[in-house]
Design brief:
Blueprint (H helix, E strand, L loop, with lengths): L41 E2 L2 H8 L12 E3 L4 H13 L6 E4 L15 E4 L11 E4 L4 E5 L4 H9 L3 E3 L10 H5 L8 H4 L8 E5 L5 E5 L4 H7 L8 E11 L3 E9 L2 H13 L10 E10 L2 H8 L5 H13 L4 E11 L4 H11 L1
Parallel strand pairs: 2-4, 3-4
Antiparallel strand pairs: 1-2, 5-6, 6-10, 7-10, 8-9, 8-10, 11-13, 12-13
Flavin-adenine dinucleotide binds next to strand 3, helix 4 and strand 10.
Length: 343
Amino acid sequence: MAYLPRTRLSTTSFISLFITTLLTSTLSLPEELFSLEIGTKIRSDKQSLMLVASDFGNLTKSTPAAVFYPSSSHDIAGLIHFSYTHSTPFFISPRGHGHSINGQASCSNGVVIHMELLGQGRADRINVSVANRYMDVAGEQLWIDVLSASHAHRLRANSWTDYLHLTVGGTLSVGGISGQTFQHGPQISNVLELDVITGTGQQVTCSKTHNQDLFNAVLGGLGQFGIITRARIPLSPTPEKVKWIWLIYTNIVAFTRDQESLISIDENERHFGFLKYLEGSLLMEQGIIGSWRSSSFFSKNDMQRMAQLTAKHRLTALYYLEVVVAYDENIVAEVDQVILLFH
Ligand SMILES: Cc1cc2nc3c(=O)[nH]c(=O)nc-3n(C[C@H](O)[C@H](O)[C@H](O)COP(=O)(O)OP(=O)(O)OC[C@H]3O[C@@H](n4cnc5c(N)ncnc54)[C@H](O)[C@@H]3O)c2cc1C
């Protein structure tokens, strides 16, 4: 076994591929590795190690033995295969944009793969098939770039994260949720096919119908079941126009009731068929005013009104529903009527 998971989450037969020599992980890296071509892409200088020792959360510190800067999927497969076939295998962990908050992408004493380097300066890592309504995206790509590439064709993925400076491989390893999830499921439910490098260093294509065990394990698998190097994401046409609405609540009962009723409405029901995004949030105490200011959504007047509202009701928290309604020129009047229903 070569591709040692940092943590082990279950005991399915698939995982058994990865679990045998976990305890050997404290060994330093085998010397022969550095005489191979991939060895020239491994760095263990202090600066490289420090850059991946922590993550966005800054709660944990876990220094690897080395950082691997691959130029291709083939390099990654080579590293994993080397470890798998070696008598003293080592931990390997892919790192996307490092926006985990508790060390999920790090690995003490092992090798962290710097996935993002794969895509640097390479426009060919995102390919949109307009005719087939899908895009093939390399695992290290940021969702913000995925959005730009698909939007250029007036197409979009169905399910997103709110924050888009996260990698495709990183969010497909955790789930990926946002305001479209109530309608389309998380991002991991919106994937047609994956290219994965397994724990033995094999490059395997998988989908719901082909190598489905691997497909199901890798999606939401926290990088424990293989490394995603390509994902095929289905696309839909972008709406012609959208209205972005924030509904502010002082009362949590009304807030949750409205949220629940909105997500339960049948998508095909006439008025709400074009509800495309729904997310509920809480604004707390001093954060209330600060959070409002950080949004370009509200005018100065709006913010004053909200400040008055909190003062009047002596509130320490406000609730809001963020709603997006899609429409086109033919139904502007109808949409305005629906929006009135929200007031
Ligand atoms: C500011 C901020 C905003 C966020 N917003 C949202 C949000 O709106 N919705 C949401 O769902 N989540 C959100 N998250 C959480 C985020 O989706 C996860 O932390 C995600 O894992 C981060 O992606 P990353 O590219 O930084 O991955 P990393 O943190 O680098 O890695 C995350 C995990 O994925 C594994 N991994 C990385 N690349 C690959 C790969 N190619 N193949 C297999 N495994 C891989 C790593 O080993 C690790 O286990 C947010 C996080 C932050 C910090």
